[in-house]
Amino acid sequence: MKNSRQTGGIVAASAVMILALTACSSSASDGDAGNDSDAPAEANVELQFSHVDADDAGIAAVVAGFEAANPGITVTPTSLGVDAYNTTLTTQLSSGTGPDLLAVFPGSGSAMSAGKLGGAGYLVDLSDQDFASQIPEGLQAVTQADGKTVVAPVTLTAIGPIFNENALGETGLTAPDTWSGVIQLCKDAKAAGKTAFAIGAADAWTTQLIPHTLNATLTYGPNPDFAAQQAAGEVTFSDSGWVETFTEYQEMVDEGCFQDKPVGTTFDEAAKLVANGDALAIVSVNAHVAALEQMAPEGTTFKMEALPATDDPADTYMPGASGSTYAVNASSDHTAEGIKFINYLVSPEGITAYADALSALPVFPSNSPTPAALATFDGFLEAGKVTSFPEQQWPDASVQQAHFDSATGLLNGSLTPEEATAQMDSAYETALAANQ
Fold first, then answer.
1. Are both 174 and 145 inside the same structural domain?
2. Is residue 417 part of a domain?
3. DSSP codes joined into one string, 200-264
4. Are residues 120 and 201 in the same domain?
5. Which sign, positive or negative, has the C-alpha torsion 25, 432, 284, 60?
6. How far is CA 206 from CA 73, 201, 203, 270, 433, in A?
């Protein structure tokens, strides 16, 4: 299947995926400094490019192609883990020392999001670029600030358990399609001397991934208006499927679904458990399929599946939304060259190289077939059973931090599901009031 069909599927599923997303309401400056898309690119220019390390392979592939096509421009990528990236880049941007090109998160729910950075004037307005009018309708809200396109979306990001198919085959086990099956898998994996799901909760961002997968089925799938209702004060975390989500998360802890001391394990350490076959799966984003393939013995294959939350397979949804998005720093001395790179990135050549390197689903047309590892997600996308990521709809990054803290509390036994949702409600109410 080629991406010409995929892009149509994105548009068709956009109401499900990104329903109720809104642009950031922060006051803004124009952020247009140096935005002259018609200006000729200079020769012998070096562009500094910061991004998260999960995208290393994709960025390397695009940079190689871009530099070959533009011999007068050098792009120097620097990557960091998600937590370090957020801290480092917010500091650099506020001090005027940020890179020319940077990765930005969709929506307005984090400090490094399109809504927050674009609203504060840190990003070049890309609205006049040809690709801006081709962004699927369902992704426009999470790529804009104050009605202006400030980032280029490149891929869709899916979340689900990525299974080591070789390890599954060795144990004779299969990916579950019911919640009872999830718990049984945990027991059977332990009996076989393996861990069912590795988790690297020492890196805070990973703690949200399992709740996202369960919530797709328990909250946002059955009620796609939940985010809008929450913003209107009609529903809360504490009177919704979030309580059941956290209850199931706690059950996974109690049933030994994870390795020992998950809060003391980094994501890289957890990924190695899956790559080596000591664990059967890790719940993560699809970009990590390529990383696992690089870590694993030759011949090891991986596949992302759904994580069911009920005992009826027909209930199951998967989370997926705009993933990799990139921008040009409004303070860069080389905005024309930066815009030139962004346009190459979303071109058929650039996006094909990026998607192939990361086993990703491109937003714009490319020559890439759907990776076999993502066939299950693609089926959910076609069926309209994909929900957006909750944090893309939250008022600001403080709610996501409360989510990290709550999930960590469940993992280490310091919080109950009810206490965790109450903690998130408090953060949400405070953030909503501060951003109105």
1. no
2. yes
3. -TTSGGGGGHHHHHHHIIIIITT-TTHHHHHHTTS--GGGSHHHHHHHHHHHHHHTT-S-S-GGG
4. no
5. positive
6. 36, 6, 6, 11, 27
- Residues 108, 231, single domain; the answer is no
Same-domain check for residues 185 and 293: yes
- Whole-number Å distance between alpha carbons of 67 and 341: 9
Residue 146 lies in a domain: yes
φ and ψ at residue 319, rounded to 5 degrees: -85, 135
Q: Helix or strand or coil: residue 47?
A: strand
Residue 389 domain-assigned (yes or no): no
How many structural domains are present in the chain? 2
What are 298's two structure tokens?
């030759």
Render each residue's pLDDT in the chain as its tens digit; 436 residues.
333 333 333 222 222 232 222 222 222 233 333 334 444 555 689 999 999 998 999 999 999 999 999 999 999 999 999 889 999 999 999 999 999 999 999 988 778 999 999 999 999 999 999 999 998 776 787 899 999 999 999 988 899 999 999 999 999 999 999 999 999 999 999 999 999 999 999 999 999 999 999 999 999 999 989 988 999 999 999 999 999 999 999 999 999 999 999 999 999 999 999 999 999 999 999 889 988 999 999 999 999 999 999 999 999 999 988 888 999 999 999 999 999 999 999 999 999 999 888 877 888 888 777 889 999 998 998 888 988 889 888 988 899 999 999 999 999 999 999 999 999 999 999 999 998 7
Range of the domain at 62: 3-154+323-375
CATH classification at residue 62: 3.40.190.10
Does 349 map to a domain?
Answer: yes
Q: Which two tokens stand for residue 329?
A: 């720093």
The pTM (predicted TM-score) of the whole model is 0.73
Judge if 16 and 126 occupy the same domain.
Answer: yes
If asked whether residues 134 and 204 sit together in one domain, one would say no
- Matching residue, tokens 């068709």: 12
